[in-house]
Specification:
Blueprint lengths: L19 E4 L2 E6 L15 E3 L5 E4 L2 E4 H14 L11 H20 L7 H16 L5 H90 L13
Antiparallel strand pairs: 1-2, 3-4, 4-5
Helix pairs in contact: 1-2, 2-3, 3-4
Keywords: Coiled coil
InterPro entries: PLipase-like
Pfam families: PEARLI-4 (PF05278)
Amino acid sequence: MSICSEISLHSLPQWNRAYSVFNDFDQDSVLLFPELIFSPLNKSLAITTYDSSEVVYVGEYKIKASLASTLQSIFDKYGDITSNSKLHSLSTRIYHLETLAEVVIELQSTPLRRLSETRATEILAIVKDIETAKIQAGWLRSVLEQVIEATRYFNRHETAVIEKEACEHGLLLAKQEMEVSMKKLAEKEKEMNEFRERLMKTTGKLGSLEMKRTCLDKRFEFLRSKVEKFQGQSVFKDIL
Protein backbone atom coordinates (compact mmCIF):
# COMPACT_ATOMS: atom_id res chain seq x y z
CA MET A 1 0.00 0.00 0.00
CA SER A 2 1.42 3.41 -0.93
CA ILE A 3 2.03 6.08 1.68
CA CYS A 4 -0.47 8.65 0.57
CA SER A 5 -3.47 6.46 -0.09
CA GLU A 6 -5.54 9.16 1.58
CA ILE A 7 -4.47 11.56 -1.18
CA SER A 8 -5.04 9.00 -3.91
CA LEU A 9 -6.56 11.56 -6.18
CA HIS A 10 -7.43 9.32 -9.10
CA SER A 11 -10.06 7.47 -7.08
CA LEU A 12 -12.05 10.65 -6.40
CA PRO A 13 -15.10 11.74 -8.39
CA GLN A 14 -13.93 14.26 -10.95
CA TRP A 15 -15.77 16.92 -12.87
CA ASN A 16 -16.30 16.40 -16.55
CA ARG A 17 -13.17 17.60 -18.24
CA ALA A 18 -13.19 19.71 -21.38
CA TYR A 19 -10.62 18.55 -23.88
CA SER A 20 -9.66 21.14 -26.47
CA VAL A 21 -7.75 19.64 -29.36
CA PHE A 22 -5.34 21.90 -31.22
CA ASN A 23 -3.27 21.52 -34.34
CA ASP A 24 -0.93 23.76 -36.25
CA PHE A 25 -3.53 24.58 -38.89
CA ASP A 26 -6.50 25.44 -36.74
CA GLN A 27 -6.10 28.07 -34.04
CA ASP A 28 -9.67 27.60 -32.83
CA SER A 29 -10.04 24.79 -30.35
CA VAL A 30 -13.16 22.63 -30.17
CA LEU A 31 -14.68 22.45 -26.67
CA LEU A 32 -15.93 18.90 -26.30
CA PHE A 33 -17.66 19.44 -22.91
CA PRO A 34 -19.07 23.01 -22.81
CA GLU A 35 -20.93 22.23 -19.56
CA LEU A 36 -17.58 22.49 -17.76
CA ILE A 37 -17.99 26.27 -17.71
CA PHE A 38 -20.43 25.76 -14.82
CA SER A 39 -17.88 23.83 -12.71
CA PRO A 40 -16.14 25.55 -9.77
CA LEU A 41 -12.87 25.49 -11.69
CA ASN A 42 -14.44 26.74 -14.96
CA LYS A 43 -12.99 25.92 -18.33
CA SER A 44 -9.61 27.49 -17.55
CA LEU A 45 -8.65 24.17 -15.94
CA ALA A 46 -9.62 22.02 -18.89
CA ILE A 47 -6.95 19.77 -20.33
CA THR A 48 -5.91 20.81 -23.81
CA THR A 49 -4.10 18.00 -25.61
CA TYR A 50 -1.57 18.62 -28.34
CA ASP A 51 -0.54 16.22 -31.05
CA SER A 52 2.72 15.88 -29.14
CA SER A 53 2.56 13.17 -26.47
CA GLU A 54 5.17 14.91 -24.31
CA VAL A 55 3.18 17.90 -23.04
CA VAL A 56 -0.46 18.75 -22.45
CA TYR A 57 -2.31 21.76 -21.15
CA VAL A 58 -4.01 21.69 -17.78
CA GLY A 59 -5.95 24.90 -17.99
CA GLU A 60 -3.47 27.59 -18.92
CA TYR A 61 -0.49 25.54 -17.78
CA LYS A 62 1.62 23.59 -20.25
CA ILE A 63 2.51 20.50 -18.22
CA LYS A 64 4.51 17.33 -18.85
CA ALA A 65 2.12 14.65 -20.04
CA SER A 66 3.30 12.27 -17.31
CA LEU A 67 2.20 14.78 -14.65
CA ALA A 68 -0.97 16.15 -16.21
CA SER A 69 -3.36 13.52 -14.88
CA THR A 70 -2.12 13.98 -11.31
CA LEU A 71 -2.26 17.77 -11.53
CA GLN A 72 -5.77 17.64 -13.00
CA SER A 73 -6.84 15.40 -10.12
CA ILE A 74 -5.39 17.93 -7.65
CA PHE A 75 -7.41 20.69 -9.31
CA ASP A 76 -10.52 18.48 -9.30
CA LYS A 77 -10.32 17.93 -5.56
CA TYR A 78 -8.83 21.17 -4.24
CA GLY A 79 -9.80 23.69 -6.90
CA ASP A 80 -7.45 26.17 -8.54
CA ILE A 81 -4.65 26.04 -5.99
CA THR A 82 -2.86 28.91 -7.78
CA SER A 83 -5.77 31.35 -7.49
CA ASN A 84 -4.13 33.27 -4.62
CA SER A 85 -0.58 33.03 -5.92
CA LYS A 86 1.41 36.24 -6.25
CA LEU A 87 3.66 34.73 -8.90
CA HIS A 88 3.36 36.66 -12.15
CA SER A 89 5.61 34.37 -14.16
CA LEU A 90 3.64 31.58 -15.83
CA SER A 91 6.76 29.44 -16.17
CA THR A 92 7.44 29.77 -12.42
CA ARG A 93 3.90 28.68 -11.62
CA ILE A 94 4.30 25.72 -13.96
CA TYR A 95 7.56 24.79 -12.25
CA HIS A 96 5.88 24.77 -8.82
CA LEU A 97 2.85 22.83 -10.09
CA GLU A 98 5.01 20.20 -11.77
CA THR A 99 7.11 19.89 -8.62
CA LEU A 100 3.95 19.42 -6.56
CA ALA A 101 2.65 16.75 -8.95
CA GLU A 102 6.02 14.97 -8.88
CA VAL A 103 6.12 14.72 -5.07
CA VAL A 104 2.51 13.48 -5.01
CA ILE A 105 3.39 10.74 -7.51
CA GLU A 106 6.50 9.84 -5.50
CA LEU A 107 4.50 9.55 -2.29
CA GLN A 108 1.75 7.53 -3.96
CA SER A 109 4.26 5.03 -5.35
CA THR A 110 6.55 4.69 -2.30
CA PRO A 111 5.73 2.25 0.53
CA LEU A 112 6.36 3.62 4.00
CA ARG A 113 9.11 1.06 4.66
CA ARG A 114 11.09 2.49 1.71
CA LEU A 115 10.65 6.15 2.60
CA SER A 116 13.31 7.54 4.92
CA GLU A 117 12.61 10.28 7.41
CA THR A 118 15.25 12.39 5.65
CA ARG A 119 13.50 12.13 2.28
CA ALA A 120 10.08 12.82 3.80
CA THR A 121 11.52 15.91 5.51
CA GLU A 122 13.00 17.09 2.19
CA ILE A 123 9.62 16.72 0.49
CA LEU A 124 7.97 18.67 3.32
CA ALA A 125 10.50 21.47 2.82
CA ILE A 126 9.67 21.52 -0.91
CA VAL A 127 5.95 21.75 -0.15
CA LYS A 128 6.55 24.60 2.31
CA ASP A 129 8.55 26.45 -0.36
CA ILE A 130 5.63 26.00 -2.75
CA GLU A 131 3.30 27.41 -0.09
CA THR A 132 5.48 30.51 0.26
CA ALA A 133 4.48 31.28 -3.33
CA LYS A 134 0.84 31.31 -2.12
CA ILE A 135 0.08 28.06 -3.91
CA GLN A 136 -2.37 26.10 -1.78
CA ALA A 137 -0.59 22.91 -0.68
CA GLY A 138 -1.60 22.72 2.98
CA TRP A 139 -3.57 19.53 2.28
CA LEU A 140 -0.29 17.80 1.34
CA ARG A 141 1.74 19.39 4.14
CA SER A 142 -0.62 18.00 6.82
CA VAL A 143 -0.29 14.50 5.37
CA LEU A 144 3.49 14.79 5.15
CA GLU A 145 3.76 15.80 8.80
CA GLN A 146 1.97 12.56 9.71
CA VAL A 147 4.17 10.58 7.31
CA ILE A 148 7.37 11.98 8.87
CA GLU A 149 6.16 10.96 12.32
CA ALA A 150 5.33 7.49 10.96
CA THR A 151 8.84 7.10 9.47
CA ARG A 152 10.35 7.89 12.89
CA TYR A 153 8.47 5.05 14.50
CA PHE A 154 8.53 2.61 11.59
CA ASN A 155 11.69 0.72 12.63
CA ARG A 156 10.52 0.52 16.22
CA HIS A 157 7.16 -0.68 14.96
CA GLU A 158 8.84 -3.38 12.87
CA THR A 159 10.88 -4.47 15.92
CA ALA A 160 7.73 -4.50 18.03
CA VAL A 161 6.00 -6.65 15.41
CA ILE A 162 8.87 -9.18 15.49
CA GLU A 163 8.91 -9.21 19.30
CA LYS A 164 5.14 -9.63 19.40
CA GLU A 165 5.29 -12.53 16.94
CA ALA A 166 8.03 -14.17 19.04
CA CYS A 167 5.95 -13.63 22.18
CA GLU A 168 2.85 -15.08 20.51
CA HIS A 169 4.90 -18.09 19.37
CA GLY A 170 6.30 -18.59 22.88
CA LEU A 171 2.82 -18.25 24.34
CA LEU A 172 1.49 -20.86 21.92
CA LEU A 173 4.29 -23.29 22.85
CA ALA A 174 3.68 -22.69 26.56
CA LYS A 175 -0.04 -23.36 26.12
CA GLN A 176 0.70 -26.55 24.20
CA GLU A 177 3.14 -27.66 26.91
CA MET A 178 0.56 -26.90 29.59
CA GLU A 179 -2.07 -28.90 27.72
CA VAL A 180 0.29 -31.89 27.57
CA SER A 181 1.09 -31.52 31.29
CA MET A 182 -2.59 -31.22 32.19
CA LYS A 183 -3.33 -34.33 30.14
CA LYS A 184 -0.57 -36.25 31.93
CA LEU A 185 -1.81 -34.94 35.27
CA ALA A 186 -5.33 -36.10 34.45
CA GLU A 187 -3.95 -39.52 33.56
CA LYS A 188 -1.96 -39.61 36.83
CA GLU A 189 -5.03 -38.54 38.80
CA LYS A 190 -7.02 -41.29 37.12
CA GLU A 191 -4.30 -43.79 38.03
CA MET A 192 -4.26 -42.47 41.60
CA ASN A 193 -8.03 -42.81 41.88
CA GLU A 194 -7.83 -46.36 40.57
CA PHE A 195 -4.98 -47.05 43.00
CA ARG A 196 -7.01 -45.64 45.91
CA GLU A 197 -9.94 -47.86 44.95
CA ARG A 198 -7.68 -50.92 44.83
CA LEU A 199 -6.09 -49.89 48.12
CA MET A 200 -9.47 -49.50 49.79
CA LYS A 201 -10.56 -52.89 48.50
CA THR A 202 -7.31 -54.45 49.67
CA THR A 203 -7.63 -52.71 53.05
CA GLY A 204 -11.17 -54.03 53.43
CA LYS A 205 -10.09 -57.50 52.42
CA LEU A 206 -7.16 -57.32 54.85
CA GLY A 207 -9.49 -56.25 57.67
CA SER A 208 -11.82 -59.14 56.96
CA LEU A 209 -8.95 -61.60 56.90
CA GLU A 210 -7.56 -60.25 60.19
CA MET A 211 -10.96 -60.65 61.84
CA LYS A 212 -11.22 -64.15 60.46
CA ARG A 213 -7.72 -64.95 61.72
CA THR A 214 -8.63 -63.68 65.19
CA CYS A 215 -11.65 -65.93 65.26
CA LEU A 216 -9.57 -68.84 64.02
CA ASP A 217 -6.92 -68.16 66.66
CA LYS A 218 -9.52 -68.27 69.43
CA ARG A 219 -11.06 -71.41 68.03
CA PHE A 220 -7.65 -72.96 67.64
CA GLU A 221 -6.73 -72.17 71.24
CA PHE A 222 -9.99 -73.60 72.48
CA LEU A 223 -9.59 -76.77 70.51
CA ARG A 224 -5.96 -77.13 71.45
CA SER A 225 -6.80 -76.83 75.13
CA LYS A 226 -9.17 -79.71 74.74
CA VAL A 227 -6.79 -82.10 73.06
CA GLU A 228 -3.34 -81.00 74.23
CA LYS A 229 -3.22 -83.10 77.43
CA PHE A 230 -3.81 -86.21 75.43
CA GLN A 231 -1.14 -85.31 72.93
CA GLY A 232 1.08 -88.40 72.36
CA GLN A 233 -0.57 -90.47 75.10
CA SER A 234 -3.10 -93.19 75.14
CA VAL A 235 -6.50 -91.83 75.78
CA PHE A 236 -7.26 -94.56 78.38
CA LYS A 237 -3.94 -94.44 80.27
CA ASP A 238 -5.32 -93.17 83.55
CA ILE A 239 -8.49 -95.19 83.57
CA LEU A 240 -6.99 -98.19 85.40
